Amino acid sequence: MSGWAAWLLAQGQVDAQMVAEAERVLEAAALRPGDTVLDVGSGLGLLTLAALERIGDGWVIAVDSSVGALEELLHLAHEANANGIMYLVGDAEVLPLPDASIDAAVLRSVLVHVRDIDAAVGELARVLRPDGRLSLREPLNRSGTYLSTAVDWAPLGGLGERVVALWEEFAATDPLQRLDADVLAVAFASVGFVALESSVEDPGDEWLVTEESVDARLDARGGPDHPTVRERWQAAFAPDEVDALVRHLKGLGGTTITFRRPQLYLSARRA
Ligand SMILES: C[S@@+](CC[C@H](N)C(=O)[O-])C[C@H]1O[C@@H](n2cnc3c(N)ncnc32)[C@H](O)[C@@H]1O
After folding, report:
1. Do residues 120 and 93 make contact, with C-beta atoms less than 8 angstroms apart?
2. Whose CA is nearest to atom 13 of ligand 1?
């Protein structure tokens, strides 16, 4: 297994925060019994499975570009004895659905991964019925903080400055740093969404530094094709410099670092 399915499975168990995020997205979508709900980028079905509980004999259409992720979802739904899901392989940029066929569309952590966000926004407008509801939650990574920006690298002098400079260079072109709440709201308004409500919240991310958690964080990926911090450091620095950076982090063992993790919740109605 590779790609998104492997990445999603590697993230492990759904935690309480993810469940709360999903509930909030579904609540804002005001789902009703009998609705046809579209979950774009359904992954392993966090929204799909929870939406089913709200729509009685309605349907959830789970669209994902990853066949592997849909296969895993099918397997999970089978285990949970969950009926009422349609599985469609497709891209958010070209949804495999007719015009005005959907009552509510929900997304969680998907637009951040889509290449052409405007195309995806246009497709959501096309497939939603008049008065159809949209609700999404996306990470606003560009306002977040990371190892390179939340840790004090000054004790490493010039090497520390290069860590920060390397991050700034990477972040300027990293696709996962593109999303902007205001730009997204304008994009939805421009294709016919009204009653737009958006709020940005930061649940934060408290990181207790330990030997193991340093390695885990250095090797974490934001998506299947996204480089890890260790890979970026190894490409930019000499091996003894990478060792010095890792030692610096591990030397902070026992302390807690809080990362900013702003999240956008946006809901709207199709005019
Ligand atoms: C971070 S996961 C989120 C999964 C799920 N929405 C959740 O909340 O757990 C992103 C999902 O979006 C899918 N995806 C990424 N780009 C996509 C695209 N252009 N069109 C459709 N799905 C896409 C991936 O295959 C993956 O399943």
Report:
1. yes
2. 41
| Residues ≥6 apart with Cβ < 8 Å to 187 | 117, 118, 121
Distance 38 CA to ligand 1 centre (A): 13
Distance, CA 110 to ligand 1 centroid (Å)?
5
Edge-first strand listing for the sheet containing 85-89:
85-89, 59-64, 36-40, 102-108, 128-139, 263-270, 193-201
| Residue 58 φ then ψ, to 5° | -75, 180
pLDDT band, residue 1 (cuts 50/70/90): low
Whether 2 shows a pLDDT value over 70: the answer reads no
Determine the pLDDT at residue 135: 98
pLDDT confidence of residue 14: 82
| Closest to 46 in 3D by CA, of 93, 109, 1 | 109
Cβ(45) to ligand 1 under 6 A?
A: no
In the predicted model, is pLDDT for residue 6 greater than 90?
A: no
**Per-residue pLDDT tens for 184-207?**
999 999 999 999 999 999 999 999
Is the C-beta atom of 41 inside 6 A of ligand 1? yes
Q: Which letter, b or e, does each residue of 65-100 get, where b requires 16 or more Cβ atoms within 10 Å of its Cβ?
A: bbebbbebbeeebeeeebeebebeebbbbebebeee
Domains of the chain, start order: 1-140+179-204+260-271 (3.40.50.150), 143-175+210-254 (no CATH)
| DSSP secondary structure code for residue 146 in this structure | -
Can you read off the two tokens belonging to residue 215? 């390695």
- Six-digit token string for 162: 């290069």
Cα–Cα dist 44/78, whole Å: 12
